[in-house]
Design goal:
- The chain has two helices and five strands; from the N terminus they run βββββαα.
- The protein is α+β, with helices and mostly antiparallel strands.
- Strand 4 and strand 5 (51-58) form a beta hairpin.
- Helix 1 runs antiparallel to helix 2.
Amino acid sequence: MPHTSNITIAVSLDENHVPEKIEWHAEDAGMDGRTDTKAIMLSVFDTASEETLRIDLWTKEMKVDEMKRFFHQTLVSMADSLQRATNEDAMADDMRDFAKHFREKMFAEH
């Protein structure tokens, strides 16, 4: 029998529909309860349209430096995922090189 695992994301909004709190929970991740986070980026591939659909949310409390770090780490993790999913080692390395360049440029301003 197939196993179904649920991942839930709860977003509390203010009166202007701006996220104030984001919580998530993954049943099979061994989590005791919901975990707070300041930002999420969710991408799904729509089978019918063959397009990527995205949800990007962040709370008012997310600092700019945290967002920069979040983007950098997301780029690195995307390179890792590309390598695992396609065995495209050279392209994954190129993405990591770009992520390094991104980090250096992004944090050189300080």
